[in-house]
Each structure stands twice: as structure tokens, then as C-alpha cells.
Amino acid sequence: MNELQPRPDPDVLLRRLKQDEARASRGQLKIFLGFAPGVGKTYRMLQVARDLVADQTLDVVVGIVETHRRRETAAMTLGLELLARRKLEYRGQVIEEFDLDAALARKPKVILVDELAHTNTIGARHPKRWQDVEELLGAGIDVYTTMNVQHVESLNDVITQITHIQVRETVPDSVLDSANAVELVDIAPEELLARLREGKVYLPEQAKIAAEHFFQRGNLLALRELALRRTAQHVDDDVLAYREEHGLSANVPAGERILVCVGPAPSSAHLIRETARLAGGLRCPWVAAYVDATALASVSEGDRERLETHLRLAESLGATVVRLSGSRVADALIDCARRKNASRIVIGKPTHSRFRDRLHGSLLDEIVRGSGDISVQVISGESRPSAADRRDAPQEATKFTQYLSSMALVAVTLSVAWFLRNSLAIPDPEMLFLLTVMITAVWFGRGPSLFSAGLGIAAYDFFFVPPYLTFAVADRRYVLTFGMMFAVAFVLSELAARVKRQERDARAREERTAVLYSLSRDLASADTPARIAEVAARHAADVFAASAVVLVTNSDAPLVAIGASPANALLDSKEMVVAHWALEHLRLAGTGTDNLPGSSSICAPLHLGPTPLGVMALLPRIRQPLRLEQRAFLDAFCRQVAAALERSRLAEEARAATLRVKTEEMRSSLLSAVSHDLRTPLASITGAATSLRDDSALEPLTRFELVTSICDEADRMERLVSNLLDMMRLESGALVLKRDWIPIDELVSSATVRLEMRLLDRLLQVDIPSDIPMVLVDPVLFEQVFVNLLENACKYTPPQSPLEIGATSDAHAVVVDIRDHGPGLPVGSENKVFEKFYRCPTGGRSCGTAGAGLGLAICRGIAEAHGGSIWAENAATGGVTFHVSVPIGGEPPPVTDAEGVSL
Amino acid sequence: MNEQQPLVLVVEDEAPQRKFIRASLTSHGYRMVEAERASEVAMLVTSHNPALILMDLGLPDGDGLELTVQLRQWSRIPIIVISARGRESDKVAALDAGADDYLTKPFGVNELLARMRVALRHAGGEAAGAISTQTLEFSNLKLDLGRRIVTIEGTEVHLTPTEYKLLVLLARNAGKVLTHRQIVTDVWGPSYSMEIHNVRVHMAELRRKIDGNRARPKLIVTEPGVGYRLRDRG
Asked: What pTM, to 2 d.p., does this model score?
């Protein structure tokens, strides 16, 4: 038995874990669902709230409750904390609204928000109250709310059919589905009608009108059924979730997925709702697909708007919206269905005539034939489309002048034909008129071309068709000619219009692609966030005809503007609120969106994952909502910008990390250097000094040795300290070279003088030709290079071994060589010796008095600061030669003697 | 006896340093007055009239450099700056401000005593007008100021007028560091711009002529970033 029980799917488990996580921080939503106003939802909600306060002493606040002046309901609010309403002025009226900010600031455990489907007054943050609720839940506040079943989005059209009342305020099904609990508030319809009669539901004067339209027993029964069903569905979902949670197999056909074909036709809305219900029943994901086949169909502005409404609707009902493009609609749809693994395709019943199918081929037919193992469900295209919906796509503005021009063209043709009438055979004038019609069709479009066809036919008939100078036609044959002319006008104008449209669309697409391309190119070369922001703002300002400001989050502030175009564009405090909101919720906000539509800016969040990086704020010159395609484009745009920002942030982090590691290494080396190399001489000094102080019986010779060792060790410490100081000076970045023209001899000789005592036992040979030019260096620093090199040589070569210093020069640089006759560097460490804290391994050179490994690193630092270099090589005959190359640094200045005479 | 011992004013705020200096000076025949603060100095100078001042730069109530400038306005007492500030710009600033010498801490006793002797001798020489001595000798170098002849181990060396001026300047201040500015002012004249490379080139030439072993200059020592000093072994 146990073996047969399937193990929980790991993906499902993971998803559940994530859900649990999200759930933990998210507030709980409880919806009191009713089938009609007056069933007592608000009353029930308040009752539950009172119990919560009384029994569990929870922190409950009434956010907003509409009592509709019902005394019983009002009484229920007594003793509960009421949140003050926000007063908004709209068209001279003061309207009281739910105060979202106050609620968020108050942050109770539970808040009551009545009427989930309510539409907020303009000026509120969100257009809809359910969006306010979403934000409350997001802030971790539990929300109790009420709604009627006719406000459920997917049931909207069904209810319109039943009640004949169009409900404008709807709530997406996803809100209802995401509710943690749905409580049905139910009474018998008869009782409700009785309550209505008693005036307990609405105010008496409203009751009658309302009752006539809505409160009919049939309506109420149907609505009640819908409410019960919807609740049952929610309960079902809970059961399913429970089963999943406990490893019980869900009773769901695996992999069911529905694809619905959406178009601009008004019937599509119905199709979408039907599919949503279907998918809800099957508990499966669904996809709304639209084929952007501008090549085939003409898409007018009206169509476009309707299409966008449809796609938004699908999205709000929980569909994944995909836009496809392709020359053949059916192929594109089937391809998408296969890619998305759809198990069925939902398509509307054709409403057009069979004749059109003959002409264009039937989409339905093609899909049915091409879908293979995918089932196809044909749903009634339905719905009595309103007259407004049926209106034809508005033609492109046809100017009066175009008609005038067509008329002129016909007149010209007529006169030409008239003058040539004697030399022309009868069909020729016909051809001339046809040409005119064609020209007007291509140039001016349908209206003027049909107009010119009519005029042309009239003129042709009047002047050239017997009987002449009458509109009568003797020969039937000419009727066909006239028909031909109209047909040509129609077909050609249609074709021309289509070509123009395609051209326009193609151009728009190309422009967008070009913009994105140039944006990505410019972003690629921008390396700092500020540069990226500047590039992004400039492009955005260009493309969206707006002022653009790019704001990013950084450690100092949640949002800082770092790029703007034009450069003086900035956001006032009101628009900053919009930007902050967009950043916090990672959603588009501002004018023309669902969030804070009252503002004058559009703020798009810049993010790749769940971490917000910043906000792109647009202040459009003309305030109009973004079209869906523009939104998609803005999204793509912002994604690119976000990617660039992320890239720079990662690069910055990597740099910082490397620096940290380096600093860490440096610090530990420094610590060891300081602790070891400073302590060792200190120990010797302390030891020697204490013996001198405490032991009075020391031999004079021992005393002398001790004192000498104190001096030597102090010396060693002094060198170490000054090396450390030099290194810090070099590395602090604050090093300013005080360059001066100086002969190389002087640098070398001052170094040898400084090391006089240590070089006493050495045979030191200096061979610097007198024609070596002066170099432009910092004399103090550069002398240090030679001091360190010579000191190093003394340290690592046997006493009394000779040292040689030589120099050569070319046009650009002087190279000084310092050669010793010691054991040489270990093979492979010629470069490493210049690294900080590098000490030669034992066994190589004799490390008598090991230093901190800074001397040569300082040499390299100084040489490189001068644009020079330093390197070492083992000589074939033994010993090491260190080469220091110094750029000469230009033309040495003239030298004058004491009398001011140039030498 | 006591009266013949030179009196040294030590301006130093660090007690261990004062202790070390006191030990060294008293055992070498100097008397000593100590000051811990800049504010005490002027009073002590007027009341004790020391022969020499050892001046630390970083004092709790003032800067030794400013103090040097102030003292120089009314006193010619030699000042040797002793400081832990080892940067060349500090040295130049102190020397240009009128200090006679500059010793960077840590320093050895012998070094200190040698510098003190030089400073005292110059002060004494100046006072007695001894600079008009006709000949100056430094190991194997001999300068006959009257005849303007320079010889090394008896052989005459030919110097250009500029080199000669440089050498005389260094010789008269033997043992003392002369900053580039001081040298330019003295040899090229006070109005001459500070083009140190002029000094360097002439100095290099001078060295070639009088300092035999190029690897180990015996006479003219470069103080990197500060100036030059003629070594005085006398």
C-alpha cells in the first residue's frame, strides 16, 4: 500500500515552502462573500471582529465600514477602534475615503475594510480598494473584507446576462483565490426580499428602483447559486491544497493547460472569461495568446485599445499573456500551444459569413486540422456586442483636400481624354479613368478613391458612353466596366492602406529595436552607475517624449537621483512618493497605471530579481496612459538598464572584495612584520640593557659588546620603521612627486654616503659616464631606491664582495645597474622579490639579518610612480644585477653659471 | 671653570629625551638649562644667554619652527633643531627659518656633539671675524682665499668662478648644511629664481674636480632634498 503511494513531488514541496514563507510574512485575508447587498455581510464581519476583540483581545481596527445608515450595523461598530477617514476633494465635493497610509502607520493585527470592489476617488493611491487591501496584506496586516458575488471578475458577464445590470466594479479572481478564508453570508432570498420591504436594506426611496432592477426572486436565486458555487470552489481549492500538503495525490489531470486565442473582436472578452472559468474548474494554468499578424489584418486604433483591454482582463484573471507574431495566425497559435504544452485550445465560434472563409481560409478549420493531439474547444463568440463596440475602425483622417485633389485629378483626366477623344479608341478613356482611380487609391486611400471612381464613372458615362452627354447607358457591357472601376478602387486602396500600415508598424518596431540596440551599446560602455543613469535617462527622454530621471538605491538613501535628462529635471516630493512606491512594490506606478494614477509621472522599477536597484521616472510632456506595447517596451528598456546597473554593482562588489582580500593580506603581513620584526630587536635591546643595569660584574669587553648590540638593534628598528613609513606614504595614494632635474651621479653618491658605514668593507665601483643626461625625478624618493638596493646587496652578499654601479642611457630613459657578486636569486623569484613582505626562502641567499621584505617593494613603488621600472636578473657569472630604468622626462633645462651665463 | 663651560638651552618636552641629552652633555663639559614649553624659551634666553639652543619642533604649547623665526629676529644664538619630523620639507623649512642645523631623531650622541661643535665654532668665528682667515684646509684640500687658489695634495685644481664661489661658501660653513635656497641666494644672488638644477650641475662638476673617488665622496655630502654640506673632520 505504502509503496504505491506516490511521494510528494519535490517541486511541489519547494513551491509550498516558498508559499509558506510568503504566507508567513503576508497578512491573512478573510472575505465575507454575499450574493446580494443586504444579506448582512458587514454585520457578520463586525460580529466576528467583536468576538476577536472580546475573546482573544486581538488588536482590531475598523479601517472603513459602510453602514448605509443601518442602525443595527452602526451599533456593531461601537466599542471598536475606528480609523479616521481621509478626506479627498473631487470636483468640489469632499469625499471620505479609506486612509491607507494611516492604516499602514497604525499597523494593527486585524483591519476591517468593507466593500472590496469599491472604486477609489481620484487622488487615492490606487484606483481600486482591493489594491489597497493587497498593500495591507503585503505589510503583514490581516484584513477582513466583504464583497458580493457579482463583483467577481470572471462571473461578471454571466451576472450581466442574468440581471441585465452591468456591474462596473470588479475584483480579480486571483484576490478571491488568494484569500485564506471565504465565509459565505447567506440568507434565503425570500428573507432578503422581506428585509428589503421592511427598509432594512437600502434607504426607502432607493429600495423601489433597486428592487425593480435587481431584487427579483429569479435573479437572487441565480446569484445565490453562483455565490454558493464560488465558495464551494474555494473550499475545493483548500481541500486540494490540503491533499497536496499531506502527500495525497491531487485529483487533477496532470499537465492540463489551456490556451485561448484572443483578438480585438469584442467577443474575445467573453471568451476570456469563459476560459478563466474553465481553467478555474480544471484548476490548471492558462495562456491568453494574441497573434500580432499586422501583415494580414488591419488593426485600427480602436481595435488596438480593445485588444489591450482584453489582454489586461486575461492577465487580471490569472492568465499568462503571450504576444505572438507570424504571418499565419493558425500556425503561430498551434506552435505556441505546443511550446506551452497546452492540452486544449479555446477559440471563438466564427461569426462571419462562410464567404469570408472561402476568401481568407478559416482560422478555426486550420487550427482544428493542425492541432494534432491538442483538443480544440469552440465557444460561442456570443454576446450582443454593443453598438459602440461594433463601430468600424475609425479610418485614418481623410482630409477634405484629398477629396478636392481627387476631383481635380478626375477633371484633368477628363480634359485629356476629351482632347484626345478623336485619336482614341473606345476602351482607352476607360483605361485613363482607371489609372486616375488607381492613383487616388494609392495616394489618398479608400474614401477619395471611391469618390474619384464615382466621379470618373459619371464623367466617362456622360462624355464617352453612347448615348453621349447623358447618363444613360446603351450597352450593358459598360455596367461591368463601372463595376470594375469600383472594385479596383476598393482593392487598391485597401492594399495601399495595408502597406502603409505595415510600413508604419515595421518602422515603429525597427525604431524600438534600434533604440534598445543603441541603449545596450551605450550602456556597455558606461561603467559607473552615474554614467549608466545618464545614458538611460537620455535615451528614455528621447524615446518616451518625456523628462527622465534615474534614481538608484544606495547605502546612504533608499532613492537618490543620479541621472536626469534634461539635466535639470527632478522629481518633486509628490512624485518621489510614486517612485518610492514603485521601488517598494516592484510595480509600475504613476499616471495611466493602477497605482497612484493621480500623479504626473510614470515610475518603473529597475530590478532583475526581487532586489530593487532603482527607479526610472518619466515625466511625460503629454499626459496620456502608456499603451500595452509601450509598457512592454518600457519594461524591456528598464530591464536593460537594470542589467547594466546590476553589472556595475557586481563589478564594484568584486573590486571591493578583491581590495578587501588584498587589504586583509597586507594587514596580516604587516601585523607579522610589526610583531616579529619590531619585537626581535626590542628583545635584544631590552636584554642587553637589563644586563648592563643589573649585572655589575660584567667584563669591560662584554659590556662593550652589549652596548654595541643595543646600538645595532636600534639601528635595525629604525630602518624598519622608516621602511614602513615609506611604504605607507607610497600606498596611501597621497604621494606627490616633487620632481626636479638632477644628475644621476648625485643620486648615487648621496646614496653611497648614506650607507658609508655599511659599505666600508666593500669594493664599490661607480662608473657613470659623464654624458648621461639629467633625469626629472623626485630626488629624495629616488635616492631611496639606490639606498635600498645597495642595502639589499650588503645584506644578501658575503662581506667584502665587490659591488658595481653603472649606467647607460638612450633617448628616453636612463638605466642604472647595480651588480653584486653574491649567491644570486633563487630561480623563478626574480619578480617575486619586489613583492611586499617577500623574503627569500632559506637556502637561497644567506639571510643573515632578515628585513620585513619591504625594501625592494618600495623601490618598485617609487620607480613605477616615476613611470619607470625595476627588474632583477641573475648574471651568468654569478651575482644579481638590479636594473632601474628612469624616464628622462623631457628636455633638460639650460644651465647657467653664477654670472647668469648659459653653459 | 664653570663659566668657561658653554651653556646649552635644551627645549624638549619629552623627559626621557632630556635625560639622555643631559647625560651626554654634562659628561662632555657642557652646562644645561631645560625648557619644556615654548612660552618659557624667550625668558630663559634673555635671563641665561645660552651659547646654543637645541630645539625640538613639536612642543605642547607651540611650534619650534615659529619659535626659531621669532628668536632669529633678535638673537644670533645658534639653534640646532632636533626633531622626529624626518621629511626633507621640514628640514628645509627649519634651516630656511634660521636654524643652524637639523638632526632627525633618533640620533647618536657623537653626531649631536659634532654638530654642536660646528655650530659653536661658527658662532664663535663669526663673532671674532675669523672668517677672514686666508687659508682653509679640509683633509687634502686647501683653499687660499687671498690668491683664490685651490689645491689638492699640493696640485692646483682649476675651478670656474661659479665652482669657486660654491666651494668657498661650503668651506666657510663647513659642517653646516646649506639649503639649496641659501646656496642660490649666496652664489647667484637673491633675485635669482630657484632653479636648483643649476646648483646640482655645478656641484656635480665641482665634485668631479675635488672629490677623487666618485663612489665615495669625501668632502661634499648631499643632503637629499635639502642641500649640501662640506664635511668637516677638523
From this structure: 0.45
